[in-house]
Amino acid sequence: MDFAEIEARGLVLLGCGKMGGAMLEGWLAGGLSPGAVWVIDPMPSGQVQAAGVHVNEDLPEDPAVLLLAVKPQMMGEALGQVAAFGAGSTLVVSIAAGTQISVFEEVFGAETPIVRAMPNTPAAVGKGITALFGNARVGEAQMAMAEGLLAAIGQTLRLGAESDMDAVTAVSGSGPAYVFHLIETMAAGGVAEGLSPEVAMRLAKATVAGAGVLAEEAEEDPTQLRVNVTSPNGTTQAALEVLMAPDTGFPDLLRRAVKAAADRSRELGK
Q1: pLDDT, position 270
Q2: For residue 163, which phi and psi values (nearest 5 degrees)?
Q3: Rounded Cα–Cα distance for residues 101 and 117 (Å)
Q4: Residue 267: its pLDDT value, please?
Q5: 141: helix, strand or coil
Q6: Domains of the chain, earliest start first
Q7: Which of 41, 99, 113, 194 is exposed most, by the fewest CB atoms within 10 A?
Q8: Is 258 exposed, middle or buried (CB count within 10 Å of its CB: 0-12, 13-18, 19+)?
Q9: Which residues of the chain are modeled with pLDDT < 50?
């Protein structure tokens, strides 16, 4: 990413917890000067303080980007510190789950370019995926800037409508928890069949991690990959007959789980 505009005008990061910290680490590793970053955080970590960035200091007058990385329940109080950056040329990017662009337009003004983004927890290891949507004031260069900044924690994906965020939240935002639970239950199944908890967990973790990489990098889609590993009348087929059973298997269970998460996201966004 070309950080020239940010180097010239600065970037303000409001909140520097796990997600904000992961982004900051990625930006600095990508070549952004520490002196171009201002962090606002009531309890900055020692790592942030040692990074050479401005921490809780006077802010630049016209930063290129204001990135909001505080929890939704803390957003109202925190925004008062940065509301003055509205209605200008500063691009506002929010990664707060469930907080709609209209909420930020009320604070910063409808003329402010605002991007709403939904990352997920694998961002902590640079393997996240972040969906983005910008309001009518966001130009192509600003959207590209937002994508470049969020690429520090993984892949990015533009959405065609803000309303898609609820489904995104249900699939990728909450999705890591589904996978973690899969690992838990796979390991428990192994223990039930006689493996030690340590061996079963190691097998489950490595299998899910490896299958994920294969699914992303292989030319075949996941359906074909499943077919490839399923021998007729073999062990995998026996398991899939249980997992793919109507009403009780994965297809129905995951559909209902994703719907429940999406419905809750819509409720929280009201």
Answers
A1: 76
A2: -60, -20
A3: 10
A4: 87
A5: helix
A6: 4-165 (3.40.50.720), 173-268 (1.10.3730.10)
A7: 194
A8: middle
A9: none
Express each pLDDT in 79-128 by its tens digit.
Answer: 989 999 998 899 999 998 888 999 999 999 999 999 999 999 999 899 99
Task: Please report the pLDDT score of residue 244 as a whole number.
Answer: 96
Model's pTM, two decimal places?
0.90
pLDDT value of position 97: 84
Q: What is the four-CA torsion angle of 56, 61, 67, 68, rounded to 10 degrees? A: 60
**Which pair of structure tokens corresponds to residue 98?**
């469930």
Residues 6+ apart with CB under 8 A from 260: 170
Residue 263's pLDDT is what?
93
What DSSP line would sit under 11-77, residue for residue? Answer: EEEE--SHHHHHHHHHHHHTT--GGGEEEE-SS--HHHHTTTSEES-PPPSS-SEEEE-S-HHHHHH
**Which amino acid belongs to residue 232?**
P
Q: Are 93 and 102 in contact (CB under 8 A)?
A: no
CA distance 12 to 59: 8
Q: Which residues pair with 65 in a beta bridge?
A: 11, 91
Cβ density class 199-237: b for 16+ within 10 Å, e for less: ebbeebeeeeeeeeeeeeeeeeeeeeeeeeeeeeeeeee
